[in-house]
Automatic annotation (TrEMBL):
Binding positions for substrate per the UniProt entry: H106
UniProt record similarity statement: Belongs to the aldo/keto reductase family.
Organism taxonomic ancestry: Bacteria, Bacillati, Bacillota, Clostridia, Christensenellales
Keyword annotations from UniProtKB, A to Z: NADP, Oxidoreductase
Species of origin: Guopingia tenuis
Name of the protein this chain belongs to: Aldo/keto reductase
Length: 279
């Protein structure tokens, strides 16, 4: 496994296993499968309702806790100092651990400044080895970064071959923050798995479009957390460290970027109203 070093010196695997939309009833099995295959980074969230399954797997896997990298996120309904502080303790209980390796704000809505203060306290208390944000666009990220004691170590945002976050990556680099991808396969949108460029390049290495896309992101300095409930697909997603894309291939895939989200925009009033309904 390859690692990146976060702005506080913590090492984070460049490839992990995400459990977004994994049924809570099968989450423990999926995480145990992933760990058995060699995954050491597991990404969950309060909103996924499967922290308990991740916690059961952590307790049962037989891997020392210090060899695992566990991420969770504070949801909008727990925004604000007091709610966030309480929810972080609940997450630790669900995860059956005294600390998480990365603690993120899930969305930039509600009193996320209060949430971040609670996270800074958790960081100081050793309950989080690193803290950061998710889904923060450059403007809100810059604002929070300038007025926080502990600089965000990570911003987990939609990043895939069709939305490569070129502007956001420059901003994050300027602030010493690591970009992490959610949705590295774009959830199959825009003909992802049959894209001619990914297929053509993959045929040269006997790799699938998904593997080529993951390799592209990793070589671009992006941490990835692909999700699958199938053990063979988990294994395939992990098998991306035995080939390297050429400069020309990187440029070909780079040209697929549209610069636009395939999911939602925080600039869309209807999207924001929907998020506000959750607070």
């Amino acid at each position: 496994m390859e690692y990146v070093t976060l702005n506080n010196g913590v090492k984070m695997p460049v490839l992990g296993y995400g459990v977004y939309q994994v049924d809570p009833a099968e989450c423990e099995r999926c995480v145990l499968d992933a760990i058995a295959l060699g995954y050491r980074s597991i990404d969950t969230a309060q909103a996924y309702a499967n922290e308990g399954g991740v916690g059961n797997a952590i307790a049962a896997c037989g891997i020392p806790r210090d060899q695992l990298f566990i991420t969770t996120k504070v949801w909008i309904s727990n925004a604000g100092y007091e709610k966030a502080k309480k929810s972080i303790q609940e997450s630790l209980q669900n995860l059956k651990t005294d600390y998480v390796d990365l603690l993120l704000i899930h969305q930039p809505f509600g009193d996320y400044y209060g949430t971040y203060r609670a996270m800074e306290e958790s960081y100081a208390a050793g309950q989080a080895r690193a803290i950061g944000v998710s889904n923060f666009y450059p403007d809100r990220f810059i604002d929070l970064a300038h007025f926080s004691k502990v600089k965000p170590a990570v911003n987990q945002i939609e990043t895939h071959v069709f939305q490569q976050q070129k502007t956001a990556r420059k901003v994050l680099a300027n602030h010493g923050a690591q970009i992490e991808s959610w949705g590295p396969f774009a959830e199959g949108k825009n003909g992802f798995f049959t894209n001619p460029t990914l297929l053509r390049i993959g045929s040269r290495y006997d790799k699938s479009p998904a593997q080529v896309a993951l390799r592209f992101l990793i070589q671009s300095g992006v941490v990835v957390i692909p999700k699958s409930t199938h053990k063979e697909r988990m294994k395939e997603n992990l098998d991306v460290f035995d080939f390297t894309l050429t400069r020309e291939e990187m440029a070909e895939i780079g040209a697929l970027d549209t610069g636009n989200s395939l999911f939602f925009s925080h600039q869309d009033p209807k999207t924001v109203e929907w998020f506000m309904s959750l607070v």
